Amino acid sequence: MNNWDRLVWNQREALLAGLQVTIEVCLISFAAAIVGGMVLCLLRMYVKPVRPIAIVLIEFFRATPILVQLLWVNYVWPELFGWPNTFFAAACTALAVQSSGYLAETFRAGIEAIPKGQREAAYSVGMSPALTFRRIVLPQVLLSSAPSIINQFTVIVKSSTLVSVITVQDLMFQSQKIVNIAYEPIEILTATAAMYIGFIFIVSMAGKLLADRLRRSYGIGSRLPT
Amino acid sequence: MIRVVDVHKRFGTLDVLKGVSFDVHRGNVLSMIGASGSGKSTLLRCINYLETPTSGDIFIDGESIGYRGDGSRPRRPRPLAEINRIRRDLGIVFQQFNLWPHMTVLGNVVEAPIRVRGMSRKEAEAIAEACLRRVRLLEKAHEYPARLSGGQQQRVAIARALAMQPKVMLFDEATSSLDPELTDEVLAVMRDLANDGTTMIVVTHEMAFARDVSDRVMFLHNGLVEEDGPAAQIFGAPKSERLRQFISKHVHA
Q: How confident is the prediction for chain A on average, in pLDDT?
């Protein structure tokens, strides 16, 4: 029996269980980061009274290392807010919070890049600002920021390798456990790296293909013309 | 039908409009001409409150756009939601078309009837098809704007405004960003609308259009109406020296 069979194939159940946790953590954080980033961005841009708070939050989220963020959310938030109550939720929250700071700025750049005329055309046919945002601005912003959004997903996946410090049993955790038992890191770490690459590749390719297809059907290049 | 009363507009220290008043009656076409910087585009944008006038008032069918008509003194400015409701009656066509690039031609035209008027998709599409037929672009209904020429895009923008069945159509230099060979198709559509009795206010540099199509022409200079009268009189017998110079520079008959 060679090392690959012994260390990787025979441990596949543990690794796949870890991969499943990684996928769950990443997809949940990613979705939450998009929503959270959009909320922060809108508060910053359009809600005057809370604008300073939004800016502080965005800068704070962006400037904190992910390891600090994980420990902080896990140990401090329950004291402050009584939540999160599971390690899994804490991991998702920490990852989401960090990325939402970055995405908030991405979305702001995207919104500011939409020409004023796009909104004026909507107002002039009687659309409200909220409706205009949802129907006219948001779809264009999501499309134009698609590359940055996808990039942020790869950041989340890579940051997620640290969630084991708060005992979430992700792929990295399982892989290190096997390494620590067997003392033979080569095959197991190589396989782990391959699994991360595969996961990132599949998701970012899917995102890119979707964005490209939309652009092609609109007949536009990488940026929306006006 | 449209009454503009003593509209002023100031941007910072710059007085763009210094008190403009006029009326447009139903079915009439008013053209506004003047050098760039004379305030004509600002005036048009004030009419549907894309710019809020610094002072003055605009009435459509007797109803003030900017202020509540509840008799309170001083009059209370309308909240945005009410301005939005009144805006539906004022279609505007922009110099830059401003079509929404992520929607098809048909999508652009049905958007407001569905989302603002609350029509069913079927109803809205029937109206949209009629509007697209009027601008002779029905066959492009399922294209995206980026695949159309500038002239075609502008005709779609006209159809989009028409689909809300506005009482008045405003044109803000609708042909100024088009190549010369594309302006004709847009002007032809505008002529058709005028002949069908559409009430129109047109800011334009197309003197031939202003002369042939408008019932009245207004010449703006430095934020004031310098001269105002029937097209024949403005172009045939201008009174003011400035208008005379402007016409001799712009009309090559």
A: 91
* Residue at A135 is within a domain: yes
Question: Could you tell me what percent of chain A has a pLDDT over 70?
Answer: 97
Residue indicated by tokens 């134009």: A144
Q: Is residue A51 part of a domain?
A: yes
Model ipTM?
0.91
Summarised one tens digit per residue, pLDDT across range B46-81 is 998 999 999 989 999 888 888 887 666 778 888 888
Q: What is the pTM of this model?
A: 0.88
Question: Cβ distance B89 to B168 under 8 Å?
Answer: yes
**Domain span at residue A116?**
2-218
Residues of chain B positioned with their CB less than 8 A from the CB of A117: 94, 96, 98
Q: From the list A126, A140, A219, which residue is nearest B112 (CB)?
A: A126
- Put simply, the chain A residues between 102 and 141 with a CB less than 8 A from any chain B CB are 115, 117-118, 120-129, 131, 135-136, 139-140
Our count of domains for chain A comes to 1
Q: Quickly count: other Cβ atoms within 10 Å of residue A149's Cβ.
A: 23
Is A63 contained in some domain? Answer: yes
Nearest CA in chain B to A140: B102
Q: Is residue A224 part of a domain?
A: no
Residue A182 has a pLDDT of 85
Strand partners, B91: B169
**Smallest Cα–Cα separation from A166: which of A68, A29, A71, A25?**
A71
Q: Which CATH number does the domain housing residue A87 bear?
A: 1.10.3720.10
Sign of the torsion formed by the C-alpha atoms of B165, B166, B169 and B175? negative
